[in-house]
Amino acid sequence: MTAPEQVDRALLTCAVILILIAGALLLARIWRGPSMLDRAISLDVCAALIIAGLAAKSAFARDPFYFPIMLVLAFLGFTGSVGIARFIAVRDRPRTPDDPPPHSDDAQEGPR
Amino acid sequence: MKRVLGFSFRNADLPPLSFEFGRRRRVLDLPLIIWLTVIWVLLWSTLTWANVLTGLVVSVVVCLAFPLPRVDLGLRLHPWGIVCLAGYLFYDMYTSAVKVTRQTLFGLPHRAAVIGVPLRCRSDLMLAATAVAVSNVPGGSIIEVRRATATVFVHVLDADRPEELEAARRQVWRVEELTVRAFGTRDEIARVAEPPPPPQLAAGRPAP
Amino acid sequence: MSLWLQIVDTAGAVLLLIGAATCLLGVIGMLRLPDVLSRSHAATKPQTLGMILVLAGVALRLRGGMELATLALIAFFQMLTGPVASHLVARSAYRTGQVDHSELLFDELDEQLTDGK
């Protein structure tokens, strides 16, 4: 292995590590919440990070094997969070804007 | 006896670049079929004649099984406009990403606001395309779109200074103009070439 | 010739690294910003800018016509579907009262909602 290839490998490894750190921080955001909508956004970003990770893997191996999977994730990654957003919106409809602002994790309680 | 095959340049009722056939007047949209075939070939990720032919067959079957309403969407492609739009969006993404990063890392105190920006174009497709383009930039997130008044409501992160708000409004109008120049019909482009609406309209209220 | 290919390879790796850093910055923004709407600003960053940079890096390293087209299609659909989800989340955050209205400097949508209904 020549020296430039080693530089490339080092750069790609750094990129993978950054993506992994981002994923870990995102898991912390999903864990903390505070509302279901935060988790919905995090789910979107999670799909984007999975696509980025698969892209890094194909750049390592120079192999387009995972491209269809990335394509399908880009197609369908948004459906989960759309479901959550619609679900919460339907369940919380009786609220009026005059109510006091909600506190953490009250999105998981039943209809008001 | 009616013709079995009819093309759009002979029949003005049909949308452009489409043809109808058969006794039940099924309408096939030619660009839609080509687009579906391209996606099919890309999903198989090899360009062979077998893939192209099966893609054509599958897309024709899909178009016949799930027919779309016969409307002219008003989608025209202008290549140079698309290049301009992509370039501006990339530049805009970069600058707004820098702005949002500065906001998060250094924790500048900021007050957010929701502003209404009335658009000049009236067609649904242009409204949707502008909304998608605006919300792809990190600084803008669309909360609500009013179809009746063609107004988009944008959440702006740092709204302390009035010039920032003006800049956000002008940015939305710029994106709208570029989007319509990339995808719009001729009269939409003429409408967008006019100056933006006056300030009392820009306050988010519909015209009296 | 091989030198140029090597340069293109390294440029692809650098682009991938920049894209990954952009993703990380966006996620840090998601951790630090205070409410749902602000977080969705930060969430757009890994979804569009980071994604485009990463895919461009991969395209520079693979350099095939078919791979290039597939990567362009991935970026296109990511940019087409991302706003759908973020708009729905923002809209239902606004409608269900998860936005603290006293925090907003002013709010032109609220006037219209109360006027129109």
Automatic annotation (TrEMBL), chain A:
Belongs to the CPA3 antiporters (TC 2.A.63) subunit F family. The chain crosses the membrane at residues 6-28, 40-60, 66-89. Keywords: Cell membrane, Membrane, Transmembrane, Transmembrane helix, Transport. It is a multi-pass membrane protein. Residues 92-112 are annotated as: Disordered. Pfam families: MrpF_PhaF. This is MrpF/PhaF family protein. It comes from Streptomyces durocortorensis.
TrEMBL record, chain B:
The keyword Membrane applies. It comes from the Bacteria. InterPro entries: Cation_antiport_E. Pfam families: MNHE. It is found in: Cell membrane. The chain crosses the membrane at residues 27-43. The keyword Iron-sulfur does not apply. Residues 189-208 are annotated as: Disordered. It is a multi-pass membrane protein. Belongs to the CPA3 antiporters (TC 2.A.63) subunit E family. PANTHER family: NA(+)/H(+) ANTIPORTER SUBUNIT E1, NA(+)_H(+) ANTIPORTER SUBUNIT E1. This is Na+/H+ antiporter subunit E. It comes from Streptomyces durocortorensis.
UniProtKB/TrEMBL annotation, chain C:
InterPro entries: PhaG_MnhG_YufB. One of its GO terms (molecular function) is sodium:proton antiporter activity. The keyword Transmembrane applies. The keyword Aminoacyl-tRNA synthetase does not apply. It holds the Pfam family PhaG_MnhG_YufB. Keywords: Membrane, Transmembrane, Transmembrane helix. The chain crosses the membrane at residues 12-31, 68-90. Belongs to the CPA3 antiporters (TC 2.A.63) subunit G family. PANTHER family: ANTIPORTER SUBUNIT MNHG2-RELATED. This is Monovalent cation/H(+) antiporter subunit G. It comes from Streptomyces globisporus.
